[in-house]
Amino acid sequence: MLEIGSLVDGKYKILNKVGQGGMSVVYMAINEKANKTWAVKEVRKDGVLNFEAVKQGLVAETNILKKLSHPNLPSIIDVIDTEDSFIIIMDYVQGNSLNKALEEYGAQPQEYVIEWAKQLCDVLGYLHSRQPPIIYRDMKPANIMLKPDGNVTLIDFGTAREFKEKNLADTTCLGTVGYAAPEQFGGMGQTDARTDIYCLGATLYHLVTGCNPSEPPYEMKPIREINPSLSSGLERIILKCTQRNPEDRYQSAAELMYALDHYKEIDEDYKKKQKRKLAKFIVPTALAVVFAVAGFALSRVAAQQATDTYRDILYEASKTADYGEKVALYGEAIAVPDKAGEKDAYLALIQTYKNNDSRFSVEEANQLTKYIKSNKAALQADPANYTEICFETGKLYWYYYDYGDGTDNQVTRAKSAVEWFQDVLDNAPEGYANLNMARVYVNIGSFYRDITTDITEASDKGKYKPFFDNIRELLDTVATDENESEIVRLELLELSRSALQQYATKFKGDGISQTDMMQMYDQVERTVTGISATADTTEHKKEATVSLLADTKKAIETAYATKGSRHDG
Questions:
Q1: CATH code of residue 186
Q2: pLDDT for 302
Q3: pLDDT at 480 over 90
Q4: What is the 3-state secondary structure (H, E, C) of 17-51?
Q5: Could you tell me if residue 507 is inside a domain?
Q6: Angle between helices 383-400 and 362-374 (to 10 degrees)
Q7: Is 512 exposed, middle or buried (0-12, 13-18, 19+ CB in 10 A)?
Q8: Do both 206 and 255 map to the same domain?
Q9: For the stretch 319-355, what's the b/e string if a residue is b when 16 or more beta carbons lie within 10 angstroms of its beta carbon?
């Protein structure tokens, strides 16, 4: 196995192990010169029977991936054949597999599954359009990575093959029982695009029901027998995908994509609702009937068109790599009639600001604020949506705001974030998960906003202990969370370190013991040194904090070595 800290091919530094399968181990590595993170897949020769046969499969997999370029597929960067192992360098895909999501949370929300299905249809359509077509053959939740931005990536091309028109059947029968189409196990001809349609259907079945088709009793019941609340339209789609005879399935990924885009229109409940709505418009006179029906039809069409337009714009924005185009498209989505109260475009825009250059500029802040405040009434109609947008906006200000004067003032960022977290407290529905975190952010931001005035008016007594306790809570819940971004964690650690140094004497005066302060200091030191920064920006932030740790410790020691009043400092 590769050692943590070792260099592969003189340029890929191994950071940590991220996964292990039957034949391979996957590591996260960084090319320090390029400042880029990669995944390193190692197959050791001494750990595999008939290594040459396995190697042939790996070579076939890499040869396929090298030819491909799609936003929902990983890229192969390098292949290294050493004396001891076969190593593949590829894109590092952040996130967890959908299989992990199923294990932790069970059946997934129908709306999410449909969106993921559309992305996978796009991938399959791309693969099937290659010359020759590429048949993936192993679609299942374990091979689909869900990234932090909500998009999916299809991984593991170990069973993929190029379609050979003259072949009567596959030379090798591969796939995962339960997800694999009947033809993958021989006797029904060669696998083709419709094979992948079956595998995707079985995957959708697992995702919306939580029932694994690869486990006993190895069957797929109609999904509404398991969960009656699911769409009958989606049920029909999954049933058609998983027909035994390929001729009875959707014949292409494009055909399936169309069905997914219009699943509500084949939903029996949806049809009944439309009939009920129509009935309300029936009026006594024939003329009135004509006008009512016409008006309804027009409004229904307009509403559906708005939904389709909104969805299309979001999809287009998710696919483009151009920052300006992305931002403009999300603005267009927000402006779609009757869609200003939907949260997806706002949250995607927030994520885009973060991803662009790890900063949130004044211009971006003005843009986002305008969108939210001009549509506040529509957003507040759904408190859950509005609360989530406010919480994420607050974090955006707190950790990323750059007001353009060349300084890096955490205090200003915290004060700017207060109003958004306060909106969370004012609008959060019962049971909102981040309510306490929002309260902590408000308390800290308000402290920074008010403390100068409090000191001037000699009324700062008792202000520092709550401030200390709130920082400690953020440290315990956010700074140590390895799922949080490096920037968020490092910014919070620096804020904590700075507070310890600046207010050591004030903390002492408000009854904070030296032991408590040193415990917080030790937590900051331990956490910041344990972060493996993967970008220049975060590396500089880490170095800056580490360089000031000694001064911080000295400030604490000095505070408790000095006798003085409660307000010394």
A1: 1.10.510.10
A2: 53
A3: no
A4: EEEECCCCEEEEEEECCCCEEEEEEEEEHHHCCCH
A5: yes
A6: 170
A7: buried
A8: yes
A9: beeeeeebbebbbbbbebeebbbbbbbbbbbbbbbbe
Question: DSSP character for 548?
Answer: T
Token representation of residue 181? 């189409």
Q: Tell me the average pLDDT across 462-474.
A: 90
Can you spell out the DSSP letters for 256-304? Answer: HHHHHHTGGGG-HHHHHHHHHHHHHT--SSHHHHHHHHHHHHHHHHHHH
Assess whether 251 and 111 both reside in one domain.
yes
What pLDDT does residue 389 have?
A: 95
* Residues 157-184 pLDDT 10s: 765 555 444 443 333 445 688 899 988 8
Separation CA 330–CA 138 (nearest Å): 34
Read off the pLDDT of each residue in 42-52 and give the average, rounded to a whole number. Answer: 75
Give the CATH number, domain containing residue 13.
3.30.200.20
Tell how far CA 366 is from the center of its chain. 25
Which residues constitute the domain of residue 491? Answer: 460-569
102 with 194, same domain? yes
Chosen domain end from 224, 252, 269: 269
Q: Are residues 15 and 140 in the same domain?
A: no
Rounded CA gap, 542 and 96, in Å? 26
Per-residue pLDDT of 517-540, as tens digits, reads 999 999 999 999 988 888 787 888
Is the residue at 189 inside a domain? yes
What is the C-alpha separation between 226 and 222, in angstroms, rounded? 7
**Are both 143 and 163 inside the same structural domain?**
yes
Query: How would you label 233-253 residue by residue, b for 16+ Cβ within 10 Å and e otherwise?
Result: bbbbbbbbbbbeebeebbebb
Using the predicted structure, report yes or no on whether residue 145 has a pLDDT greater than 90: yes
Q: Which residue has the higher pLDDT, 328 or 21?
A: 328
Kindly give, in sequence order, each residue whose CB lies less than 8 Å from that of residue 557, ignoring residues fewer than 6 positions away: none
In this structure, the answer to whether residues 63 and 187 fall within a common structural domain is no
Kindly provide the b/e burial profile for residues 38-68, where b requires at least 16 CB atoms within 10 angstroms of the residue's own CB.
bbbbbbbeebbeebeebeebbebbbebbeeb
**Assigned domain for 40 exists:** yes
Q: Are residues 155 and 108 part of one domain?
A: yes
Average pLDDT value for residue range 3-24: 86
The count of domains in the chain is: 3
How far is it, in rounded angstroms, from Cα 310 to Cα 405? 37
> Using CA atoms, how far apart are residues 36 and 305, in angstroms rounded to an integer?
42
Higher pLDDT, 458 or 282: 458
**Six token digits for residue 520:** 């917080």
- Position 41 in a domain: yes
298-to-272, 277, 476 alpha-carbon distances in Å: 18, 13, 55
The secondary structure of 380-439, three-state, reads HCCHHHHHHHHHHHHHHHHHHEECCCCCCCHHHHHHHHHHHHHHHHHHCCCCCCCHHHHH
Are residues 56 and 175 located together in one domain of the fold? no
- The answer to whether 23 and 43 are in contact (CB under 8 A) is yes
Against a cut of 0.85, is the pTM above it?
no
- The tens digit of pLDDT for each residue in 203-222 reads 999 999 999 999 988 889 99
Helix axes 344-357, 383-400, angle to 10 degrees: 10
| d(C-alpha 208, C-alpha 121), whole Å | 17
- 269, 287, 322 — which closes off a domain? 269
